[in-house]
Amino acid sequence: MSRIRTAIVGVGNCASSLVQGLRYYEGRDPAGAIGLMHWEIGGFRPSDVDVVAAFDVDHRKVGRDVSEAIFAAPNCTATFCDDVPKLGVAVRMGRVLDGVSAHMAEHPAERSFRPADALEADHAEVVRVLREARAEVLVNYLPVGSERATRFYAECALEAGVALVNCMPVFIASDPAWERRFAERGLPVVGDDIKAQLGATIVHRTLTDLFRRRGVELERTYQLNTGGNTDFLNMLNRARLASKKESKTEAVQSVAADRLPDENIHVGPSDYVAWQNDNKVCFLRMEGKLFGDVPMNLELRLSVEDSPNSAGVSIDAIRCAKLGLDRGIGGALEGPSAFFMKHPPRQLTDDEAWRRTEEFIAAGE
């Protein structure tokens, strides 16, 4: 089997968990490989993913080998694999644009982004790096609200001939104009906004679907989330949250028996608690009516390490993107996008998304 040559934009906590995971599962017995939805996809194992290029803008990461940069501040996720070998891939200075919110400067350096004093990469430079690295898949891990920066890298992927896995809530796969451009170039895109392995969104969706299947009328619901990583700190700037709130809210609305009025549903990031670090705590409440219009409510508290919770999903998305490339499929991969992402081009129930993804994987076997 060939390898999957992967480039990363944003060497933050999510990238740290991804790169740690590639090493952690290397040489493991599949029977004991906990935490993966798929050990193999199209013959590719997690350790078949190679990081061949990386971009960031933080001065503590630019110029360092990816194996070192993933542990540099302000990253604060769990270290579950501390023997990541040197990859021989230095983090390149990327393009800032709207990737760093101005309010970051008001917080301690060890907690926030600090752009490097280096010449920013332009479009031609990013395309050159991707081509010289022979990258096949580009993974977007930019901060929430990086609308212009995400479109910049999507343009670079199109010109360089690279598939895109868009883990952030900037709408590329789910935007018909962007999706059409990837289809015309014969490049797969999986997006948008990664859905964690067992996170707030998938739990909220599952319970909402359960209400529907069991004939319980859902009247009101909220999902409140707190965390202490740079993602939550970044989202203190509420102006950056429009796409994120739309993505998370639509993920829940799409599986409800009837769409809830806007005033009866609140889904979104809630507050930054520094000492939580990469731990994310979700508080979920659902109110409804049972048989005879008798009221009921459900409350749930979910605590997870945020970045490892998405890394296994990213590994699957990367491998599906590679399968799409090998099969000459361009545009959004509908099943994988619906299964792995919160805001796909077409919302499917989780059962249907899983079935469509399994069919996609099996199609070339």
Order of helices and strands: EHEHEHEHEHEHEHHEEEHEHH
Number of helices: 11
* Global outline: globular
The N- to C-terminal Cα distance equals: 13 Å
Mean of residue pLDDT values: 97
Enumerate the spans where pLDDT stays under 50 for 5 or more consecutive residues: none
Based on the model shown, name its key terms.
365 residues, alpha/beta, seven-stranded parallel sheet, four-stranded mixed sheet, 11 helices, 33% helix, 19% strand
Structure description:
- The chain is an alpha/beta fold.
- It has helices at 13-24, 66-69, 123-132, 147-160, 176-184, 200-213, 230-234, 242-253, 308-326, 334-340, 350-362, and strands at 4-9, 49-56, 92-93, 137-140, 163-166, 188-191, 217-227, 265-272, 279-289, 295-305, 331-332.
- The strands form two sheets. A seven-stranded parallel beta sheet has the order 3-2-1-4-5-6-11, sandwiched between helices. The chain has a four-stranded mixed beta sheet with strand order 8-7-9-10.
- Helix 6 runs parallel beside helix 8.
- The longest helix is centred in the C-terminal third of the chain and has 19 residues, at 308-326.
- The radius of gyration is 20 Å and the shape is globular.
- The mean pLDDT is 97.
Blueprint (SSEs and pairs):
Elements: E1 4-9, H1 13-24, E2 49-56, H2 66-69, E3 92-93, H3 123-132, E4 137-140, H4 147-160, E5 163-166, H5 176-184, E6 188-191, H6 200-213, E7 217-227, H7 230-234, H8 242-253, E8 265-272, E9 279-289, E10 295-305, H9 308-326, E11 331-332, H10 334-340, H11 350-362
Parallel strand pairs: 1-2, 1-4, 2-3, 4-5, 5-6, 6-11, 7-8
Antiparallel strand pairs: 7-9, 9-10
Helix pairs in contact: 1-9, 3-4, 6-8, 10-11
